[in-house]
Design brief:
heterodimer, A: about 90 residues, mainly alpha, 2 helices, about 0% strand, rod-shaped, B: about 190 residues
């Protein structure tokens, strides 16, 4: 009877420790897979945002500022041409 | 080149050493549970027990060493050296019962005279346990290895994300506001 306590304690310890470790590894892997998908999604969003902001800089934002800093209208060069145009 | 090969092994990151801590810890704990009814003590300062406990702490030390930050190649190199030094304890554990008079019984299966002294039923039970625990070890190592691979992948992805964000912020800075370093100290 006394020995049975040690035997079953051994079983409980073995299955408990190995089971807990296996469960921890599995749960953490699942959690990190979600993080990984989120990170990939974030990268895609950032790249899209970067592309759009680069287009803005070339287009509407550039057109909305004083291009020459000479006091002329926003989006208009001192020679009267607008953003993207070349002086004749 | 050797360190490149170590780094190329990827996210092994002490996966088997981590399992070594668990299995050696279990061996010590289960040995203590066995020792109490047989020897009437949980622990005694016996050569087999001490060398096994040393192995347990060597595994922990190895994992601690791996956690010290550094270049990937550096970590791989110092971990490999530490593992080679620590492995010296393994044959000492095995031969401890032959080299010293111990409370632990002498070798019964892998004896120096190659004459196993174990009852048939116990031999089959031992064989069954050895095979089963090896399979459990392989399964857990595979799961843990996969987890380490995902952790590495996330670290790379987060680095990529940080680079993308940095470049993205850079795009918003108008050219007029960008600080251009002045060569010669600007005097």
């Amino acid at each position: 009877m006394q020995n049975a306590v040690y035997v079953y304690s051994g079983y409980a310890l073995t299955f408990g420790v190995l089971g807990a470790y296996g469960a921890w590894v599995t749960a953490r892997a699942r959690s990190l897979e979600v993080d990984l998908r989120q990170a990939k999604h974030d990268i895609a969003i950032e790249q899209e945002r970067r592309t759009l902001s680069a287009e803005d800089v070339d287009g509407s934002i550039r057109a909305a500022v004083d291009l020459d800093g000479d006091g002329s209208e926003p989006g208009v060069h001192g020679d009267g041409t607008s953003a993207g145009q070349v002086a004749p | 080149m050797a360190t490149d090969a170590c780094a190329a092994l990827g996210p092994t990151r002490g996966v088997t050493a981590e399992l070594g801590v668990i299995f050696t810890g279990l061996a010590l704990a289960l040995g203590m549970l066995w020792g109490k009814p047989i020897w009437n003590v949980y622990w005694t300062w016996d050569a087999r027990l001490i060398t096994t406990a040393v192995l347990f702490f060597l595994y922990i030390g190895y994992l601690a060493l791996r956690r010290i930050p550094g270049d990937r190649n550096q970590v791989a190199r110092r971990s490999a050296v530490a593992a080679l030094i620590a492995f010296v304890d393994v044959p000492i554990v095995h031969f401890s019962v032959n080299w010293w008079r111990t409370q632990h019984q002498q070798a019964t299966v892998l004896r120096p005279d190659l004459d196993p002294q174990i009852h048939g039923t116990m031999a089959w039970t031992l064989l069954w346990a050895v095979v089963t625990f090896h399979l459990v070890f392989v399964y857990l190592a595979a799961r843990r290895y996969r987890l380490a691979a995902i952790e590495d992948h996330i670290a790379d992805e987060e680095l990529d994300l940080a680079v993308v964000r940095r470049r993205s912020e850079d795009d918003f800075v108008p050219a007029e506001r960008r600080q251009v370093p002045v060569l010669g100290g600007g005097a």
